[in-house]
Amino acid sequence: MRLLERNSADEFILTKDFVGDEAPPYAILSHTWGADDEEVTFDDLINGIGRDKAGYEKLRFCGDQVRYDGLRYFWVDSCCINKANFTELSQAINSMFRWYRKAAKCYVYLSDVSTTKHEASGQSSETTWELTFRESRWFRRGWTLQELLAPSSVEFFSRDRKRLGNKRTLESQIHEVTKIAISALRGIPPSQFSVEERFSWSENRQTTHKEDRAYSLLGIFDVHMPLIYGEGEDNAFTRLREAIDKPLKGESHYIIYRTPLTRHSIHMRSSNRRLASRTRVDLLKEIYYWADGKDERCIFWLSGLAGTGKSTIARTIARRYYDHGRLGASFFFSRGGGDVGRAGNFCGTVAVQLANSVPTLRRHVCDAIAERDDIASLSFHDQWRQLVLKPLSKLSKNDYLSSYIVVIDALDEPETPIRYGFCQIPRAFHQDFVLHNISPSTVDQDILVFLKHNLKLIGQERSLDAGWPGEEIITNLVQIASGLFIWAATACRFIHEGKRFAAKRLNVILQGSNSTPTAPEKHLDEIYTSVLKQSIPEEFTQEEREEASSMLRQTLGRLHSILNVPEDQTRPLRLHHPSFRDFLLDQTRCADPHFRVEEKQAHQTLAESCIRLMSTSLKQDIFGLDAPGVLVGEVDSSRLETCLPPEVHYACLYWVEHLQKCGAQLHDNDKVHQLLQTHFLHWLETLSWMRRMSEGILAIRSLESMVRKQFEDKIPEWMRRLPEVQEDWSALLQTLEGHTDRVSSVAFSPDGALVASASDDKTIKLWDARTGALLQTLKGHSNTVWSVAFSPDGKLVASGSADETVRLWVSATGAARSTLEGRSVAFSMDGMLVASLSGDVVRLWESATGTAHSTLVGHLGWTTSAVFSPDGQLIASASCDKTVRLWDAGTGAPLQTLDGHLDTVFSVAFSPDGKLVASGSADMTVRLWVSATGAVHSTLEGHSHSVNVIAFSPDGQLVASASNDEDCTYEDIAVRLWDSATGALRGTLDGHLDQVNDVAFSPDGQLVASASEDGTVRLGLRNGSAGQPARRVFM
């Protein structure tokens, strides 16, 4: 590396070639090159010429600035590299990112930005330079990307040498122009960003030589490769991709950085909880037989009652195959266990462990993550498919030496149960084993072996008699255990913790247990009571015992036999078994009032503690970033843990839930009100950093009256533009990004919990109707999805597409069920049949099998809509032939033709009692017909464009209609609500910015959902009026 310096004659000369780290402190110039004959070259400096070139001014500027900053040396790419020496050129290009990173200063000289250009006209010079700054050619050149990111200090200068600012003070402008993450501009290494994101930074940049578009990215990806000018841009990028993929350097950290993970989910966390030797022998043999590939079924499903030892068996299997190098991954759910209690952490954890366990899989997992920057926000089903199934599907038999085992425990424990999705797997693919179906004698023998082993160890540790405690006592303990391994394990822990009083504690267990045969739960209650009583010294007076009991309920000390108390005091206590919680809360089981926990009182105590903690911990900009607009994904997760300790994390998530469960009555100026007055926005900011805003939406619904319109004066001064919403916006208004094109159809699930939307982006999305959280994205169609519907039981979702297929999906998992022919869809009321539109006919299918049932033929034009009557006896269909036809759903025979519209009929619907049929037409009217006779009941007029969708409210009192404003004049894009009995207009729901494509009522009839060309789904109140805003907006 050669540097430039100014000699005593005020000339610029080259230094010797510094090798390695011997170069002295230096500055570096970043600039855009002019014509070849304008730039000062290496030969010019060697020959002492070039002062008359335009580029020499840049050397003078850099030399003066170096002197001003107290430096002596600087580097300029145009003249410090001997480009005639190809070896030197190749070495320089491969080293350039490192050279920029080591520079004390980087000066960006913007030859096309001036601060004096318009001063004479009276315009603000600052305003004019900022406009030209954003448009500078420097931002479009390939080599300047690394010159922006590598140095820690980057200062920008205009061509008249005025300092414009540095990388930090101008970061918002730079971010807007380049789309580079602010965290990258602040020095987060490029390796912390996905491969695809780094490539996106260079998409609009150009270089003189096409190959340099790839070569200029070597430092961004920290790779090296030889230069081959003349190979072409495509070949250069192919070699760059190969260089990136080859080492997979740092990808394990990259996966951990980008995916939702759980740090303590693997079996090592409780590796001591394994089966004792010679217990569960037959069961383990059966599992080993399956795991070693001697059974073709890919899932071994182990189930059993609480306390029968499922988790211990799972840990034993995990440890065995970990020791054998065949454990692919493991995840042990724990109710209320934070990260290990959340299904959202499951897929990322399994993917990382698989990538680390199966070397050939790692690249495919990394590619899967690189493809989706929003991986953490995907639904469970999409995460599983993207992070696990897709990478595994790319493996060939030559990519691995043996099969791998994945161990998952307690599928019914997470906050969002996922066992139901596994239950959808056909039985032919899994082997089932029910623990409590094992013969009692076999279970007793296993418990006998377990007790003998553990009591022997305790006796040896405490120097008790060799035969202690004796066969008779152990047999008695086996009988008391009543088949519950959790009882035996708790008893052994309790005895062991007695230390020199171990024998005395054994007697306590024997004395406290009723010898008469009772339910196993009774014996478990007795040992829990014994453990609790022993935690309070007998010599205490009654008053002291009551005080100790009160303290015990809060501190839970001296209870290691029933609690996992980690040495690290920052980690939470955990129950050894969830049955202890059930015992404490049940007054019929926990008879001693000193130990019983009153659930409402406990929730009140927790709520008060959460509020107190939040009041002292929350504040604006809790991370201290001082940079509005930073994305959550741009902040290192370790910073989240530092600024949000576990107790604050818990308080922010659960304080409202504790309030609700304790039955608290909220009042003005109470603790809750005071918290919200001071910290409401701070709480929302914290939830957003935690990626848990949907929980905040639910909490706000409960506390709605306290926060409405309270924080309008809290808008920070730096915010320049507000979102486009109605002036009388509701406190529940929200916008959720999802669809990338117009939304064509919307439907509620029968229980009102879900909203399904279909879009031109070829997807169906399932949303939580309460919070607006995206739950599933259903992909498979190859063209616009026109319609979506739920089956009456809510288990299936049907979608019809322009690709001429109707697809059935399992709503709980998003799995594809079957594919039918057609483009639009409707379910019969019993869910047995599905109707689809195909050309000028309506086709009926059996939903269970996907087989054709019948075809309704008779329309003279393209069919546009079809619907079943509430009793399932009739089908109504609409068509471009201007008619509505009624058919016998059982036989397919035509019954009536409803003729009266003057143009295409786009939509048709039955009233809930089946007595009326409503139709919407291009003739701008809605007609209500008597289904029994075909007579016109009434005509609803008022739309100024085609009526493309209609729907009845569940009580039949309202008809909702929406119009197609093809001219985009926005004059008729509101949803109109009509009185079905009188035909009078009852109200409108405004808010969409483009035509409405579909409308649906919630099952309780209180909400109206509308899907629009503007890419949103809006939920409005049924009793809407002109200007009534949507309650929630889904995008």
TrEMBL record:
The keyword Repeat applies. Coiled coil: none annotated. SUPFAM superfamilies: P-loop containing nucleoside triphosphate hydrolases, WD40 repeat-like. It holds the Pfam family WD40. WD repeats lie at residues 736-777, 778-809, 856-897, 898-929, 940-965, 989-1019. Residues 287-416 form the Nephrocystin 3-like N-terminal domain. Residues 26-117 form the Heterokaryon incompatibility domain. InterPro entries: HET, NPHP3-like_N, P-loop_NTPase, WD40/YVTN_repeat-like_dom_sf, WD40_PAC1, WD40_repeat_CS, WD40_repeat_dom_sf, WD40_rpt. PANTHER family: HET DOMAIN-CONTAINING PROTEIN, HET-DOMAIN-CONTAINING PROTEIN. This is Vegetative incompatibility protein HET-E-1. The lineage of its organism: Eukaryota, Fungi, Dikarya, Ascomycota, Pezizomycotina.
